[in-house]
Structures
1.
Amino acid sequence: MTAIKVLLIAGVVGVMLWAFRNRTTVGLRAGVRISIMGLAALAIASIINPNITQHAANMLGVTRGTDLVLYVLIVVFMATSLGMYFRFKELERRLAQIVRANAIRDAQTSKSEGKHQAFSSHEA
Amino acid sequence: MSEADFSADPPRANADVWVIVRCFNEASRVGDVVASLRPTFPNIVGVDDGSSDGSGQVMAARGATVLRHAINLGAGAALQTGIEFALSDPSMRYVICFDADGQHRSADAASMIERMRAEPVDILIGSRFLKADDAPALPTSRRLLLKAARVFERALYGVSLSDAHNGLRVFSRAFASTVDLKLSDMAYASELVGLIAASGLSYAEHPVTIDYSEYSLAKGQRSINSVNIAVDACMQRMLKGRR
């Protein structure tokens, strides 16, 4: 097993575990911002000097620099997708809460206005 | 059912019971369902999960208290709404979950409540498989799927129910107050099994009859949806990380 394989597998697993365990904490959001800045810096550096990715690839045991970029992209994409997944789940949960609160409030309002038959009174 | 059924004084025998009927576009069925429950259960809460066919008005006309979701959220979210509403009644001791499509029998719900009052059980789940004569009515593919669900839930939660996806369930107040369903759609049924396991409260199964009709089978979930349910339930279970 080459060094790149070990690194990529560790990266994938590490990113997943980290994101799962900290998905709503401030630390994650800070981490995401730092990673974005780091990636941007790397991108700029490799645009200025395309040989950087090739050197890095050679050091890590990857044939071509473009392959290395692809591998990193896969890890970043997975992390992004997971982040989106949790965000959507959280939004869905909040949406359900607001719709639920609304439904219960409406029913209690119309009940106290006497639109429905009398039920055991338990107005909040 | 005629108007007279609910203009008469409803019996107060089960005044400490709330029946939750959640429905999404079931106007043709849900009226009869509410009417069949009314003579036995005075408190019925209909959760209209954003229906566009007037299901909510139909339930209200038959004497249910109607909670209306402004948008469709899904079965689990609707059940949670009904439970939270029932909990706002301090005299509530039991909640019954009852499907809106007419597949359950009011008499089964009544006998489950009787059993809950007699036995120290907090959760009573209806099962169609405890009555041998009822099994042939179910298509084979459905039966296999339910069997798979059973194995899946035993592996995931360590709780084994013969018919965990039966919509007819009775909860005591103690269990109802611990229920916090996060999965909005049909995956809630598996999530609920997990909540039962986590609560540590006593549960039992009760034989019930399911009246299969073409309507209820067509309305039932598509089998492929079980994949979505399994993935969501696994994720929910595995990823209980810090919040």
Note: The radius of gyration of chain B is 17 Å.
2.
Amino acid sequence: MIDARYPLLTSAATVWDETAATVRSGRTSLEGAEPALLGTRVAPSASTFLAAWEAELLRITTGAEHNAEALRAVVRDFALTDSARAAEATRLLPHGGGL
Amino acid sequence: MTTTIFVPPDVAALEPLEVDSSASTVTTSLRGAATQVSDAVSSAEEKGLPPSWSGDSAKSAGSAMTEFARRADAAVAALEVAARACDVYVEQMAGLRLEHTRLSGERITHNRDVATLLADINGATEEQVPALQARATRLQEAHTRLEDDIADMWRRVGEAEDRLISAFASADSPGEGRSLADATDRPDTDVLRRELSDLGGDSDAVYAWWNSLTPAQREALLISDPDLVGNTNGIPIDDRDEANRASLDRDLDRLGAIPKEDRTAEQEAWLLRAREAEKALQIPGAQYDPMTGLPVDVNLVMYAPTAFGGDGAVGVAFGNPDTADNTAVVVPGIMNDGSNIAGNSEDAFRLFNQANGNGESTATIAWMGYDSPSFNPTNAWSWPGNIGDIGSVVSEGKAEAGGAALADFVDGLRSTDQGDRSHLSVIGHSYGSTTASHAAHDHGLDADSLTLIGSPGAGGDDVNHVRDLGMGEGKVYVGSAENDFVTWLGRDGELGMGRDPSQVDFGAKVFEVDDGEEFTIPTFGTGVDNHTSYFDANSSSLDNLTSIVRGDEPDLVEGRTTPANDRAVDFVEDEARRTVIEPTQRWIDDRVSDAQDLAEDVKDWHDERVEDMSRWADERWEDFSSLWR
């Protein structure tokens, strides 16, 4: 059973959007790092480290965006369901043309 | 007889060190990324699941949030480890760079000694052989020692590299990040934050506490709370700089990623201040310090871009105040805030450059750490926002509050000072001089000297003489340009900011500054220039400020004997005479002259009409008379 009001779901979607934006911004910081500045010997391991975490932060960002979109989809589905139910109910009413 | 003397060979040139101070930007990027991901975790945990949301969907959302936090926290843990290792590496390489420079110098000396010995051997007599042999032996020993030292330096370079390589390798996968995050000895930043808060702003206690932390604890707090670490007095300048640069990096990335048209006014103001701070850190000329041959050590000692209702608080140091022989804190005045710290930094940098050339190390700080009366673009016409802010210049409220903040900041510098006690000067300009005076009078400013330039008043009705400022004997200096209108404002009472400190009877040491050009209301810009020229290159003022910062006496002159306000009154009277009375008099004279001309014209017209009438009457009389002839 779903016990949530639409504004709560919408606001949760916004939180996920903001979260995705913040992590994406963190990834941008990471992309700005220049491993070569650490010297020839260190640069390869620094590059490996950076590549690994840039990829992971991208996955985290995508996950957060997916959560936001999923919540918005639920809101849309609820709205459609409510509209359909309302239309059905209206048809049952005498003045709704159902009888 | 032939004698053989074994002369050691030259020492080969050292390979250059690859790593310089620019490597610290990698640490900043790692830390900036960690800070932002850490912020995302905190924000999601705080706002992600409203308490009023229940049921299966809430459980599902909670589970998603937990999973997100778990993965993101693993990233933070890995980045913490890498940033800490990188920070240590850069610091070690800085030390090794100094060692490299020293050994390169010794090599040149050694090779010159070898060449000299060889020249002396050629053509030497038999009697000189024992002495030459002894020199050769000493040179051989020096050669061996130098080669050993060079090998040792490269060994330490290799070890530092190995440690960093190992740190990166230990944390370069999500699984390893997870293990680091779950480690039982991972620092608890909530506890650390509470401990710091409990110290209540006692900078000596903060310094002792900070030094008691492990490197891992310091790094964790620096990443989770860079704004706190960067702006807490008593935390060493290097660490404050690292924390503030992480915050700056975060703001530039995060706010810069929002399309301009989508940014709110507050975000736009925030980004403007972040970019201005970035500009202040990149002042042209700071790339090279003639004293060391290295880039100037520029430190972001304060960074709170949203403080004071969006005006922002920023401090930029040229040189490191913790290690400098001479330190100066420059306090700007009205119309300054975080949005023009780059301009204030240029002043501080000019002072740094000039003061730094006497063989002693120097640090100068542009300190915009108080809420100066200024203009806030986010609420241009609001009351009591902007209009109230500008209006506050006629009162001392902000100078009083700023005085407390300045005194605390200086206490922090004293707490973190290393080695011999630094000679510390505070220089207040304009409203900043009133602020600095309040710091001295109200809070006992712990500085070696206080300098007031372009001062509208030495703050407070209780400050009637230099001794009321509580500084050391003869350690209050004043510079007031003759044609700086702000220095004509000193007075007590509600509409004043205290006594004019350049008056003879105030008792401060008044030093020579250029007069500045005379100006009038139409050339008021010149008057403003006179007020903002104290740090100009090649000015008497900058020369004397340099002396003060170095702990020397400036060129002194007699103080003023004409009350400050008399100058303002004279100016207003002169301007009133020139712009109102004299033009009005001229206008009246012109109108009188016009009226006289008009009267003349009317009279001429009247006379002509009378003449015409008379002629007409004569002619009509002639006509009439002719009827009867």
Note: Confidence is low (pLDDT under 50) at residues 375-392 of chain B.
